[in-house]
Design brief:
This protein folds into four domains: about 110 residues, Up-down Bundle (Methane Monooxygenase Hydroxylase, Chain G, domain 1); about 190 residues, polyphosphate kinase like, CATH 3.30.1840; about 160 residues, Endonuclease Chain A (Endonuclease, Chain A); about 180 residues, Endonuclease Chain A (Endonuclease, Chain A), CATH 3.30.870. It is built from 19 helices and 29 strands. The strands form five sheets. Strands 16, 20, 21, 22, 23, 25, 26, 27, 28 and 29 form a ten-stranded mixed sheet that branches. The radius of gyration is 27 Å and the shape is globular.
Length: about 675
């Protein structure tokens, strides 16, 4: 393939290429021997899952743009066609590194007496286990499809493994091609009987391969060959702009149509014969040059995030133990503690169960009258929403803003909409024209003759599963200046025509960009007066052109700017040697960096906001995002110090040069994922 490359345009870099750079950092973690062996496999799974979503969303979007406006359409300083070519080249490079890493890990697994075997490598005892599993569990779920010459292919479902099958010899009448979809309802890995002290695991598709003779017995083939492949499809939901009655039905219809969305890539076994590959590509309408991304025999590595925990306990990270919160752990009345002083939860270091205790207390407190919450992504068996159901059963008024259009969580969210409504919870399924991404909860309680509000404002979702592996913050407060404005946000959800006048919160899309610009320029003005100055950001993604320009201007005028970006960082220094006042770094390690914080020195009296949104156009203009100020001086010092500890990180940190290449941060060994929990555990009550 011709090597394509794109230079940065001005101070900006295409966000799709920056995202690939982030996923490269994930892949590097799989190669990092600091992590236990089985957790390195997990990083391969994360990389693969990320890449599938990248194609289903970002590449699919570029293809739509190319189809509508032509290949010469300009985007991020280049053409759509060249950007797609650059992506394909980069993904191929990363794919080669992925395969090399997997082969290396397979050797290391074997040294630890763990082996991933295929259907040709089974002992008699193991073959018996495979036979039983195939007969009892797999065979009943298989739907083999025969594809006669010239016939159309059946629907190839998105994101699942298929086997393309051909027959050699045997009776006449065998089709030139057969297809089998590997069942997603079964575990991807089957643990086999231990032989000579070796733990063996076989993938589900290899169990299917083992049983192909039984499936196609009537053709009596001399040989059956099978090659794995998968299709990624455009995941965009085609919905009209109406938002009234029937909206949920239209979302459900959109989800069904997603299964037949336009294919955007095929990943296939490298050994698949050329005629079969061309036949598949032709029938699903993909160009061979764009779609042929060969791979190993194994696909859908996302499942390797759940690879069985085998062998020595040292091969996996130990179960994480939460740090007791100095003011909340063991406290019976959470609201009483919040009423005295603002509290801050650091996930995953603190137990998400403390927030659940807050909800459960509110659910049975006779003086609590109303609970309001936004929901973006929750677990399927959500303890958070179950607590709200309990509150409704106890006579509390419960209102949930459920963002139905949380990508890839739509089905789960719709299911919860119906369950909550059945329990008497008032559910608002989103806001017309805006995606609600804010993470806010408000509890109203009668205290004397007045009502007092208690709020939770987070940087991450109200999700107990992700709170174990994502770094996030949650502020618990009864500050009336903040809680009254959170109440106004919920009132806006009901009456969209009335936009509140926010004085504490910074709320998108109601001028967030302008307010952040104002604060950046205030920092410039303070520096010009000789006052102490700095800007520190902690974000998932940085891509907004206007804000990036303001940050560069601030740095050019002497303000030190430090930015921690987990994912996409489209900011490129105008100097080939970097900028002395502007530094960006990203952390990728055992835990996913997800917290978002915006802070300014303010002449030595820092101002800090926790925020749900990144500095991207979609977050600033098309979503409801809430940035909440921190008023408590102790909590401000805590967050500022935590940022400084992360900035010192040399174990998980990368930086970027002007070509946007990942570079390791050097210096004395410092792992913030170890040092921050150690520091938090030393904090007093």
């Amino acid at each position: 393939m011709h090597k394509a490359s794109i230079a940065p345009s001005g101070h900006s870099f295409p966000k799709e290429l920056s995202w690939l750079l982030f996923n490269e950092r994930v892949l590097e973690e799989a190669n990092d021997s600091r992590h236990p062996l089985l957790d390195r496999l997990r990083f391969l799974g994360i990389y693969s899952n990320n890449l599938d979503e990248f194609y289903r969303v970002r590449v699919a979007g570029l293809r739509r743009l190319e189809s509508e406006n032509g290949p010469a359409h300009r985007i991020a300083g280049t053409t759509v066609r060249k950007l797609l070519q650059t992506i394909a080249h980069r993904v191929t490079e990363l794919g080669e590194r992925f395969e090399s890493c997997y082969e290396k890990l397979a050797v290391e697994l074997l040294h630890e007496k763990i082996r991933i075997v295929d259907e040709t490598q089974l002992s008699k005892e193991q073959e018996g286990a495979v036979r039983s599993f195939f007969t009892d569990k797999v065979r009943p779920r298989l739907v083999p499809i025969l594809v006669p010459r010239g016939a159309d292919l059946p629907l190839l479902h998105d994101h699942v493994v298929h086997l393309a099958i051909s027959f050699v010899g045997g009776r006449s009448g065998a089709p030139p091609l057969a297809l089998i979809e590997v069942p997603e309802t079964l575990p991807r890995f089957l643990e086999l009987p231990v032989v000579d002290g070796i733990h063996s695991v076989i993938l589900l598709e290899d169990v299917v391969r083992w049983g192909l003779r039984e499936v196609f017995w009537m053709f009596q083939p001399r040989q059956i060959k099978a090659w794995a492949f998968k299709v990624n499809r455009d995941a965009e939901l085609d919905l009209n702009s109406e938002f009234g009655d029937g909206f949920l039905s239209r979302v459900n219809l959109g989800l069904r149509k997603r299964a037949t969305g336009a294919p955007v890539r095929v990943v296939h076994d490298r050994e698949m014969p050329e005629p079969i590959l061309k036949n598949i590509l032709r029938k699903i309408g993909l160009d061979r040059a764009d779609a042929r991304i060969p791979g190993m025999r194994e696909h859908n590595f996302k499942d390797f995030m759940s690879f069985p925990r085998l062998g020595r306990k040292e091969l996996s990270y130990p179960r994480f133990r939460h740090i007791p919160h100095p003011q909340l752990s063991g406290v019976r009345r959470i609201m009483q503690a919040i009423g005295k002083k603002d509290r801050l939860l650091h996930f995953p270091w603190h137990d998400f169960g403390l927030f659940l205790d807050f909800l459960r207390e509110a659910a049975i407190d006779p003086d609590v009258t109303h609970i309001r919450m936004t929901v973006y992504r929750v677990s399927q068996e959500s303890s958070v929403l179950n607590a709200l159901v309990n509150a409704a059963r106890n006579g509390k008024k419960v209102t949930v803003l459920m963002e139905v259009l949380a990508r890839f969580d739509e089905e789960n969210n719709i299911s919860w909409v119906n369950d909550l409504r059945d329990e008497g919870v008032e559910v608002i399924p989103g806001v017309r024209g805006l995606k609600v991404h804010a993470k806010i909860c408000l509890v109203s309680r009668r205290e004397g003759k007045k009502s007092r509000h208690y709020a939770a404002v987070g940087t991450g979702n109200f999700n107990e599963d992700t709170a174990r592996v994502y770094t996030d913050h949650m502020l618990l407060t009864a500050d009336p200046a903040i809680t009254s404005e959170i109440q106004q946000v919920f009132e806006f959800f009901r009456n969209n025509y009335k936009v509140p006048d926010f004085r504490q919160l910074i709320v998108s899309p109601f001028g967030s960009r302008e307010q952040f610009i104002s604060r950046i320029r205030e920092e410039r003005a303070r520096h010009a007066k000789g006052e102490k100055s700095w800007i520190r950001l902690r974000l998932n993604n940085l891509a907004d052109e206007t804000l990036m320009r303001e940050l560069i201007d601030a740095a050019n005028n002497g303000v030190p700017v430090q930015i921690l970006v987990r994912g996409m960082n489209c900011l490129v220094s105008e100097s080939p040697h970097g900028h002395p006042n502007l530094e960006t770094r990203g952390l990728v390690g055992r835990f996913l960096e997800h917290s978002r914080m915006v802070s300014f020195c303010n002449g030595g009296k820092p101002k800090v906001w926790l925020t749900s949104g990144d500095w991207m156009s979609r977050n600033l203009d098309g979503r409801i995002e809430v940035s909440c100020p921190i008023h408590d001086k102790t909590l401000i010092k805590t967050l500022v110090h935590e940022f400084e500890m992360q900035w010192r990180d040399t174990e998980n940190a990368r930086t970027w040069n002007q070509k946007n290449a990942n570079l390791r941060v050097t210096g004395p060994i410092w792992d913030s994922h170890k040092e921050i929990p150690r520091w938090l555990s030393e904090q007093r009550r």
